[in-house]
Amino acid sequence: MPLINVENTLNYSPSCERNKDVIFEQLLPFLSSVRSVLEIGSYSGQHALHICPLVPNLTWQPSDQLDLLASLNKNIQLHNINNLKAALKLDVAIEDDWPLHTFDLIFSANTLHIMSWQHVVALFNNLPKCLNENSYLCIYGPFKYDGQYTSASNENFQQWLLDRDPVSGIRDFESINRLAESIDLKLIKDINMPANNQLLIWKKNNVC
């Protein structure tokens, strides 16, 4: 398998590097059956740089906000991977930023707790623009269940987030799932991941 050296990656994320293999392992059954992926909040692009050479049948579209776009695209250009496209500017709250075509799978890692709640709602309100009748939505990160943290470290992380930005924070799974259900997505997997994270996978629900 081809290996990507991320030593010179701009905005390098140690946590992404630690978790990329286990995320890929869980996503692989879905990635193997799809042809197009939109990643929301790609940041350094490490997930895409890791996955694309291993699953050459899919086309990966990274995206992020304007202030991160130049560094993200430098990382992409450095490795010149055929099925990894140049990153798009995407602010989830701006309707005109969203791509005009649909994707088989939409992936986002460690983004919902960084956004404001208003941006989380805007993300789900705009997602239907990019969902086809069989799309998957895969979101990785920490969540609360029934208002409870899954670990003491996540509770400490919540305080760090709030000190950094009062509108951020670990989201309640139930609230996120309600937003997903409101756009006809059905939860099919809730996977416990390392470091007290979850991988949530929804599928477009076409059952009347």
Automatic annotation (TrEMBL):
Protein name, UniProt field: DUF938 domain-containing protein
Listed transmembrane segments: none
Top-level taxon of origin: Bacteria
